[in-house]
Specification:
Two copies of one chain form a homodimer. By secondary structure, chain A is mainly β. The first copy, chain A, has one domain: Beta Barrel (Lipocalin), CATH 2.40.128.20. Helices cover 0% and strands 64% of the residues of chain A. Chain A is globular, with a radius of gyration of 16 Å. Chain A starts with 21 loop residues before the first strand and ends with a strand. Chains A and B meet through strand 3, strand 4, strand 5, strand 6 and strand 7 of A and strand 3, strand 4, strand 5, strand 6 and strand 7 of B.
Chain lengths: 162, 162
């Protein structure tokens, strides 16, 4: 019924981001002046379908009872000259467009647009840094939201699990 | 390793959208003044994790060889009074925020924001209509893009497959 029974060849433009492919699982910590610091479990999946972009699905859960917390879905688009574009949807009612760079296995991105539904919280800027060291992926996210300046919000360490 | 081994209870706010849950598979047709009309296969998945939103993953493929065409990822957020919010990311470098209504099993949404990365095509407006009749889901998308007004772009009929 569904096609793509066999995985297509990697699109050559995806080579700089190929190190992200697969499933990463680990734990992180969230912080912000307006909330209590919290720990979370996390899974990130990166996949490809033979096109020049990576699919991205992230989800986090509470460490005590496994209940779902945040999630994100979107696409990573490598461009010429080490540029990277990222488009994301958040279940909190936000969309995010980021642009940045990939150098080796380090990605640095800054939001160029954050839009929201009429009931969503006001987030005005996000920056993201992802750094892979072999089977370890470390990322950090900074956020400007609800009247606060750009401040550290998330940090996690994930291991490649498949 | 990953939690949520058992499906959590449906969040009560999701009741108006519960008819969408599951996997829908079928075929559609794409059209626009700037392109040749084309047919495609499609799968849409709607899921929930116990929170007041639906996850949404869509992908289409060529009917001749099964190669991947478009896809979309995002979240549906029902609100009070039959309102619905939708946030989407597209691998073409677009983000989409839609607002609209659900009445019975008919959803009608209009974009309130479409943002894009610097290399993405210029899409200025989208409207979406989804209509379920038992195991059949029919949708249509109209688009204003690349200098054209809002015009029919996609239409598909999908069957509930699980």
């Amino acid at each position: 019924m569904s096609p793509v029974q066999t995985e297509p060849a990697l699109h050559p433009d995806l080579t700089p981001l190929a190190f992200l492919l697969g499933i990463w699982v680990g734990e992180g910590q969230g912080m912000y002046p307006t909330i209590d610091t919290f720990d979370y479990g996390e899974e990130i999946r990166f996949w490809h379908v033979g096109k020049p972009w990576l699919g991205y699905a992230q989800r986090t859960w509470a460490l005590d009872d496994g209940r779902s917390l945040h999630s994100e879905l979107g696409y990573w688009r490598p461009q010429k000259g080490g540029r990277v574009e990222l488009v994301l949807a958040h279940p909190t009612g936000l969309t995010e467009v980021d642009e940045g760079t990939v150098a080796g296995t380090t990605l640095e991105l800054t939001s160029t647009s954050i839009e929201r539904t009429s009931t969503a919280k006001d987030v005005t800027a996000l920056t993201r840094r992802y750094e892979a060291h072999g089977h370890l992926l470390i990322y950090s996210v900074a956020m400007a939201a609800v009247g606060q300046p750009l401040l550290p919000h998330l940090r996690a360490e994930l291991e490649h699990s498949s």
